[in-house]
Amino acid sequence: MFSPHYRICYIGFLFDFAIMIAMIATPFFVYQQLGGGVAMSGAFGASQAAVYLLTCLIASRFVSKAKNGLYFALVGVAVFTTFFCGMSFFRNPWLCGTLAALAFGSLALAWPAFHSWVGAEPDPIKRTRRLGWFNVAWSFGFAMSPLLAGPLVDLDYRFAFLAVFGIDIVVFLMILSMPHESTHFEALTEETLQARVDHDRESEGHLYYAWFATMVINALIGISRNVYPKHVANLVETGELRLFFESQPYSFIVEAAATKYSWLAAGSALATALAFLLLGKTNRWRHNFNALMLIQVAAAVAFWSLGSTHSLAVMMLGFIVLGLNLGMAFFASVYYSIADPQKKHARASINEGMVGLGGFMGSMLFGQLVGRYGVALPFHYAPIVLLLAIILQWLLLHYGRKRAALRYAPTSS
């Protein structure tokens, strides 16, 4: 079979392919099968993120003690598949919301395990490259999946659930074939640790603000996944959606809202994959606060535009910028999280917890605000919050560097 490095990439691709199908299907399941609106969809997304966050924080306390971290991935895949697919048999919003929350919350067991396995590579240069390819693989699954998920939902929502079930069976079997990290990677030596001490100290210094940046962009991504689909659906239903700025819509624009939204989701995910590809091949982004700050400023502008435009092209541009921000923030935070070999699995769990926290805050808050005030007002005020978040990240950078200097200070013999 393929080498373990190729296998973990295929696992990431297939699993995220299935997850994105589920993400596309869930809000439209809420709208069409449960009779809910944007507030219910936002509550679904927020509850999923909350359970995800809670699972990450609990798991971070003990995952490093596991004999084989990939056992957590097996449990996560099994629980996700069972609960998400089981949701399709019910029409009670409370029960479906609970099943969805448990399903997406279980992903907190799988992803830290995958990243921890990749992060077992002792050489920082090789680790950057292999982490890059793994992140490209799963994000490419995110990018390709909406192109199938949207048409499946528009055709019959049940096809989306069947697709998730079939793909996850393959993922489960592939995880079973993976070797233990201790038998696959070279053992860490004292010489290796000493050679990379400067690198590890810098990574420690950049960890805290990178976690916060990951939380912020995932709040925006949560809004784009759980709140914005309803906006697109409304524009399609009222005939207000345009490709560019034409006075009359093209015929293909005025139908199949799930498919139209799936194009946006695919564009965002492709941008994330592109960011991962570039970051995996370069090192200049490492320990570079300014690069991450600039892409967040661009995301603030993009988010403002999403609250005003009726143009699918402008929406696509905004989603692409959000995808690039997600790629840069997540790659940096997961890289810094796995730099410490003793804490890599626990910190990977905390990093995923920041993903969940951001998704919870964005989906819950904006679901309520958009439901009450419409799209324009919350989206137009969000950039102010984002600029304040950048200032806080700058403060966290200085705090992290002080902590790192104390931890890596030379000891007298």
Summarize the structure.
With 413 residues, this protein is mostly helical.
Layout of helices and strands, plus pairs?
Layout (H helix, E strand, L loop, with lengths): L3 H29 L5 H22 L10 H18 L5 H13 L1 H12 L5 H32 L1 H20 L4 H4 L5 H6 L1 H30 L1 H11 L18 H25 L7 H18 L5 H26 L6 H30 L2 H32 L6
Description of the structure:
By secondary structure, the chain is an all-alpha fold. It contains 16 helices and no strands. It has helices at 4-32, 38-59, 70-87, 93-105, 107-118, 124-155, 157-176, 181-184, 190-195, 197-226, 228-238, 257-281, 289-306, 312-337, 344-373, 376-407. Helix 2 crosses helix 5 (107-118), helix 2 (38-59) packs antiparallel against helix 15 and helix 13 (289-306) runs antiparallel to helix 14. The longest helix is centred in the middle third of the chain and has 32 residues, at 124-155. It is globular, with a radius of gyration of 21 Å. The mean pLDDT is 83.
Evaluate the radius of gyration.
21 Å
Strand content: under 5%
- The percent of residues in helical segments reads over 70%
Determine the N-to-C terminus distance. Answer: 50 Å
Low-confidence stretches: none
User: Which class of secondary structure composition applies to the elements?
Assistant: mainly alpha
Order of helices and strands: HHHHHHHHHHHHHHHH
User: How many strands?
Assistant: 0
How confident overall, as mean pLDDT?
83
Main sheet overview? none
- Count of separate DSSP helical elements: 16
Taken from the alpha-carbon principal axes, the silhouette is globular
